[in-house]
UniProtKB/TrEMBL annotation:
<dbReference type="InterPro" id="IPR004089">
    <property type="entry name" value="MCPsignal_dom"/>
</dbReference>
<feature type="domain" description="Methyl-accepting transducer">
    <location>
        <begin position="233"/>
        <end position="473"/>
    </location>
</feature>
<dbReference type="InterPro" id="IPR004090">
    <property type="entry name" value="Chemotax_Me-accpt_rcpt"/>
</dbReference>
<dbReference type="Pfam" id="PF11845">
    <property type="entry name" value="Tll0287-like"/>
</dbReference>
<feature type="transmembrane region" description="Helical">
    <location>
        <begin position="144"/>
        <end position="166"/>
    </location>
</feature>
<dbReference type="InterPro" id="IPR021796">
    <property type="entry name" value="Tll0287-like_dom"/>
</dbReference>
<keyword id="KW-0472">Membrane</keyword>
<dbReference type="GO" id="GO:0006935">
    <property type="term" value="P:chemotaxis"/>
</dbReference>
<dbReference type="GO" id="GO:0016020">
    <property type="term" value="C:membrane"/>
</dbReference>
<keyword id="KW-0812">Transmembrane</keyword>
<keyword id="KW-0807">Transducer</keyword>
<protein>
    <submittedName>
        <fullName>Methyl accepting chemotaxis protein</fullName>
    </submittedName>
</protein>
<dbReference type="GO" id="GO:0004888">
    <property type="term" value="F:transmembrane signaling receptor activity"/>
</dbReference>
<comment type="similarity">
    <text>Belongs to the methyl-accepting chemotaxis (MCP) protein family.</text>
</comment>
<keyword id="KW-1133">Transmembrane helix</keyword>
<dbReference type="GO" id="GO:0007165">
    <property type="term" value="P:signal transduction"/>
</dbReference>
<dbReference type="Pfam" id="PF00015">
    <property type="entry name" value="MCPsignal"/>
</dbReference>
Length: 600
């Protein structure tokens, strides 16, 4: 349509140029626009009113060339866009659709003959071709129908060809690609069967399917060690998290026990402090009593010294008494001797008187007076003898009393001697007691000084224990938080291991899902060679996994041992009814041995 319009515009341009030459040269007086209008009116009539040509201006010579709205718009457009030489446009007039192709007309110098106000070079008009689109739309509709029909048939044919091609060539390969993708998706990277006969070498072909399969093979080969590493790492992480859970739980218990010990120590130190205060009071009382005892000892020593002086005086008096009694004994003995002499004289006198009486009796009457004298002498001699005997008895009594007094005095002297010795011994004891009391007071003073130092140290220990108690409380809280965090990490790592265990590459080796025990359950593993505490890590229908910690176990020596398991709790008691055989034992370092056992 544009070609047709351009042909009309080219023809109009040639016609206008030739008529202008004749008009401005004076060869023809006819106005070029009039001739142009008449020529294209016939052209319009020939086209049955479907093709129109018009030279439109805002200030035309002929009214027929008056620009309508869209033509004025075109004039303004060309005036503002001098480099544009042609413009297409679709308009609607009287309910009909038209195609417009317009070109600008510039004012020439010779145009000023008729239009003196024009400026050379300005766009003063447009020439446009207007074509009714009714035939074009009809042809277009018809062509569209034919094109659609043609396209439809072509598409059906292509689809049939594609279907056949897909059925025989692509579908099988797509199915194979999907099988490979599904296996990779499930973590199974053994693709030899699926890729049998495929070109998997680099640059073996540029076919897109071959390239897809080649890249899938590379992806599988690249992911296989990564997935295996992820599975191993997830297992190690879960094991370490399980180990950390046990250790943190043990640490929490130790921190709790430490906190209890610190509290008990604080209470004990409080009790010791109270006892120390009582001890201080008792030491003060002991010191005061010791000082009073020293005073009493001094008073006792003074009394003892006074008693010893009195004893010395009594001892001296007793010695004088003994001397006096000894003198009296001597006098008594002398008196006894004199009394003996008197008694002898009285006996002799009595004999003489008896002899005199005998001689007087012989003398008869002459001897009668002598007999009286002799009788008186005899009586006096008997009386003297009796007096002597009485005096002798008194002297004997006196001698006996003197002997008794002497014995008593000697005994008293010995008693006072012993009393003197005991007083001296008692004085020595008092001196020793006084020295001991002074030593005791000095020791109490020294002990009190040292005890004050120890009391200050005890206060420092008490303050330190209070600080330790506060830190222990913080540690206990942090330990609980750490315990909760480790349990959360253990649960998350368990989920990670469950996800990694979902890969077919893992399931193919194991043929069964595993259930990780979180937190690990404490148990006792027994065999014919050992019986040790362990922690259950995971369990399934085929067997169990567990680990020893802080045990000096040779992992090589227990491989193959048949074992039984028992639990402290009832959670996994169902596992205690089976026997197992250790199939692998791995040394994880730090006295940790990780074992797997199958159910027998």
């Amino acid at each position: 349509m544009r070609t047709k319009a351009e042909s009309i515009l080219n023809f109009a341009g040639v016609l206008l140029e030739s008529r202008n030459e004749k008009f401005f040269s004076g060869e023809s007086p006819e106005i070029p626009q009039v001739i142009q209008n008449e020529v294209f009116k016939r052209f319009t009539d020939v086209s049955q009113g479907k093709v129109f040509f018009k030279q439109a201006s805002k200030e035309p010579t002929l009214e027929r060339n008056k620009a309508v709205d869209y033509e004025e718009t075109l004039i303004d457009y060309f005036s503002n866009n001098r480099d544009v030489k042609q413009k297409e446009k679709f308009v609607v007039e009287d309910g009909k659709d038209y195609y417009i192709l317009a070109r600008p007309i510039e004012a020439e110098e010779r145009c000023k003959m008729c239009h003196p106000t024009w400026t050379t070079g300005n766009i003063i008009a447009v020439e446009d071709v207007k074509i009714d689109l009714i035939d074009y739309n009809a042809v277009l509709d018809n062509n569209i129908f034919l094109m659609v029909l043609n396209w439809f048939l072509n598409i059906v044919l292509v689809l049939i060809v594609i279907q056949l091609f897909f059925h025989y060539e692509i579908t099988k390969r797509v199915s194979r690609v999907l099988e490979v993708i599904f296996k990779i998706e499930n973590g199974n990277f053994v693709l030899d069967k699926e890729l049998e006969g495929e070109l998997t070498h680099n640059n073996s072909t540029k076919n897109e399917f071959d390239r897809i399969i080649r890249h899938l093979k590379k992806t599988a080969d690249s992911l296989q060690p990564v997935i295996q590493n992820v599975v191993q790492q997830s297992k190690d992480i879960t094991f370490n998290a399980s180990y950390a859970t046990v250790k943190v739980d043990d640490n929490s218990k130790m921190v709790g026990e430490q906190n209890n010990v610190v509290k008990e120590s604080i209470e004990f130190i409080n009790s010791v402090s109270q006892s120390n205060e009582e001890l201080i009071e008792n030491m003060k009382t002991l010191k005061s009593d010791s000082q009073k005892s020293i005073k009493s000892v001094d008073e006792g020593k003074e009394m003892l010294a006074s008693n010893m002086d009195s004893t010395d005086k009594v001892y001296q008096s007793i010695e004088k008494t003994v001397e006096s009694v000894e003198g009296l004994r001597t006098l008594s003995e002398e008196v006894s001797i004199a009394i003996g002499a008197i008694s002898d004289i009285a006996e002799q006198t009595n004999l003489l008187a008896l002899n005199a009486a005998i001689e007087a009796a012989r003398a008869g009457e002459h001897g009668r007076g002598f007999a009286v004298v002799a009788d008186e002498v005899r009586k006096l001699a008997e009386k003297s003898q009796n007096s002597a005997n009485e005096i002798k008895g008194v002297i004997s009594s006196i001698e006996q009393s003197i002997g008794d007094v002497t014995s008593d005095t000697e005994a008293t002297k010995e008693i006072f001697g012993e009393l003197r010795e005991k007083s001296e011994h008692l004085e020595n004891n008092f001196n020793s007691i006084e020295g001991t009391l002074h030593t005791t007071i000095d020791s109490i003073n020294i002990f009190q000084e040292k005890f004050d130092v120890q009391l200050e140290q005890l206060k420092s220990v008490f303050n330190g224990l209070n600080s330790i108690g506060e830190y222990s409380n913080v540690s206990l809280k942090n330990s609980k938080i750490l315990d909760e965090t480790i349990i959360e990490i253990m649960n998350e790592s368990t989920k990670l291991k469950a996800l990694s265990d979902g890969f077919q590459a893992v399931l193919n080796k194991r043929d069964v899902d595993r259930s990780v025990i979180s937190p690990p359950d404490k148990c006792i593993i027994k065999s014919s060679n050992f019986s040790e505490e362990a922690y259950l890590f995971d369990a399934n229908d085929r067997g169990i996994a567990f680990y020893f910690m802080d045990k000096n176990i040779n992992h090589k020596s227990i491989n193959g041992d048949q074992i039984t398991i028992s639990f402290y709790s009832d959670i996994h008691q169902n596992l205690a009814n089976s026997r197992y055989q250790i199939v692998y034992a791995i040394d994880k370092g730090n006295n940790r041995v990780f074992c797997g056992a199958k159910t027998l």
